[in-house]
Specification:
By secondary structure, the chain is mostly helical. It has three domains: about 30 residues; about 80 residues, no CATH class; about 50 residues, no CATH class. It is built from nine helices and no strands.
């Protein structure tokens, strides 16, 4: 088969497009690997800094350094909630206070670290949603069986258990306000 100049040009363009697509996929994979390695190094550095920021006093009581308190203040003055810190604590394998400080530290570091924090929170929520049947967050919450029963009726759930699952999902997603509003509508608050 003889290739015409037009067919040759078309074939070259298709080949070039395919190569660009493959290079793009390879570059994305390399960037994700590098970002993952960088984040792992950052986590180790944060853990080392965290351990150095909470020295024990002579009486064995933890002395909170000014920078640790600033991190906690940054967390409490942010839009992040207790449930965000709890979801991230489970994801990072840290205590709740360590998670709050780490969130605060990322806030203090600025917009780039806040963007990374948002991605961590997304990943942590996805992971927690995969374990929703355990009702970890519901059991930690202030919500009672009566709340779940009232919400089941309001939401049209077949039983309070399904309502508990919905409460769990809302807590994981940072939607506690929706639960509170629904309880008011159900006459529970």
């Amino acid at each position: 088969m003889r290739l015409t100049p037009r067919l040759t040009l078309y074939t070259t363009m298709v080949t070039a497009t395919a190569l660009i697509g493959m290079l793009s996929i390879a570059a994305k994979a390399m960037a994700e690997t590098m970002a993952s390695r960088l984040e792992q190094a950052n986590i180790r550095l944060e853990q080392a800094n965290f351990e150095n920021q909470i020295p024990l006093g002579s009486d064995g009581v933890v002395e909170i350094s000014q920078s640790f308190q600033e991190e906690l203040d940054a967390f409490w003055n942010s839009g992040y909630s207790f449930w965000d810190a709890e979801v991230l604590a489970r994801y990072w394998g840290q205590s709740l206070d360590e998670s709050k400080a780490r969130i605060g530290r990322k806030i203090l570091f600025g917009p780039a670290d806040i963007a990374i924090l948002e991605q961590f929170l997304l990943d942590a929520r996805i992971e927690s949603l995969s374990q929703v049947q355990s009702l970890n967050f519901y059991l930690q919450s202030e919500y009672s069986y009566d709340d779940a029963a009232a919400l089941a009726e309001l939401w049209g759930e077949p039983s309070p258990f399904e309502s508990k699952l919905r409460i769990e999902k809302n807590l994981i997603m940072g939607n506690e306000t929706l639960i509170q509003e629904a309880l008011q509508l159900a006459g529970q608050r």
